[in-house]
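Sequence in, structure out. Go.
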Amino acid sequence: MFVQNHFPDTAFLLADLAASIRENQNRVDRYLQQDGAYEVFDPLHDADKTSPQTDEAFPATFWERFGIRHIIFNSPYNITASKSQWSITGSLAPYRWSALKKDGCVESLSACFSNCSVVQFADYANVHDAADFWNGLFADVIKPLEKKDLEFIFQLGDVTGRTVFEVDEVLDIIGQYGRHGRVNMVMDEQEANTLWDVLCGIHYPASPKEKYQLQFETMHIDTLLIFHNNGVRLISKEMQFDFAGRSLNNMHTYPHSKDFFLAGFRLGLLLRFDIPHAIVLGLVVSGAYRENASLPTSQTLLTYIDDWKSTISII
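Output:
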């Protein structure tokens, strides 16, 4: 059952974000400076002597082939740690989870995932054998760790050409991750429409709102985020909201603005914000990137928030 809540007051959300960024300005800058890295250290986590220090590190090509775009660790690596020997061959055919497991990589992955808080997966459609790797990761690494507080971000991408069986299979696998944390699914409108055509057929007419709701109900996830125009639609068990971004006047579209939205969304999760705050922070980071055509800093985020707030009429 879906509950339609009142639209959250954007001005108040922005004020909360600005206060948190000011309080953590240096830490936010350190987080943003890691943009593009596969393995990210969370500078907002107060690591102490009891925090686990991992000696495990993987080359970026390993995570890329594995289908993981970002993994955020609660504590830094041991500075003497060197990259592990683990790698996944660039040849698509021979390497599957069973081979990786046979090579003894599970123990190293377990050490990594026991020390992480947020995992963002790559587009399923762009990862060869994604279902095999992600199912193995859940069964042999995530489940045995018994952690319940992980944040997972999944993206399906363009599933054109995929069969109903293939899509159902990966959605079932993604749904399993919800037993050990929160599963956030992110799509744009075109990807959502393609998914609808695969799962429900093009001959079943439905409004965009109906499509998104029905898709959410079949996914067994916690939150569904749909990019549309200049905003994001949130659907969860508790709420539905449409979040409009700041006006795009005099702003240019850049090819990686979605990546910057997700960078801001992840930052919101690390700051322990609720999902509405994290979404608006994603819009702030993406908007600041598009406005300045450069990597955002805490100061450009604060400037962008102040400029956005000035356009909002509070009655």
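Check: The chain has two domains: 1-33+259-315, 37-244. The first helix runs from residue 10 to 23.
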